[in-house]
């Protein structure tokens, strides 16, 4: 009986922690549409800063 309650509380705590993590992640990194992503990539390429695409591009 007590172990069942502890198990449910542990599962609930994991779900709450996961929910908080996802909320904080999406708050700081909102999902972008492909058009927005390409626009940001073009902007970064124009500023001369290396991007992940440039870093992994074949020489």
Mean pLDDT across residues = 77
Number of strands: 0
Task: Look at the helices and sheets and give the structural class.
Answer: mainly alpha
State the helical fraction: over 70%
Gyration radius over CA: 21 Å
Low-confidence stretches: none
Number of domains: 1
Count the DSSP helices: 3
General shape? rod-shaped
Q: How large is the share of residues in beta strands?
A: under 5%
Characterize the structure shown:
- The chain is mainly alpha-helical and 59 residues long.
- The chain has three helices and no strands.
- It has one domain.
- 78% of the residues lie in helices and 0% in strands.
- The longest helix has 27 residues.
- It is rod-shaped and about 65 Å long.
Topology (SSEs and partners):
Blueprint: H1 2-28, H2 34-47, H3 52-56
Concise description?
The protein has helices at 2-28, 34-47, 52-56.
Identify the notable features of this structure and list them briefly.
59 residues, mainly alpha, 3 helices
């Amino acid at each position: 009986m007590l172990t069942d309650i502890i198990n449910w509380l542990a599962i609930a705590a994991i779900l709450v922690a996961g929910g908080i993590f996802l909320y904080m992640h999406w708050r700081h990194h909102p999902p972008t549409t492909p058009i927005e992503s390409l626009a940001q990539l073009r902007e970064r390429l124009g500023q001369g800063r290396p991007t992940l695409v440039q870093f992994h591009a074949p020489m």
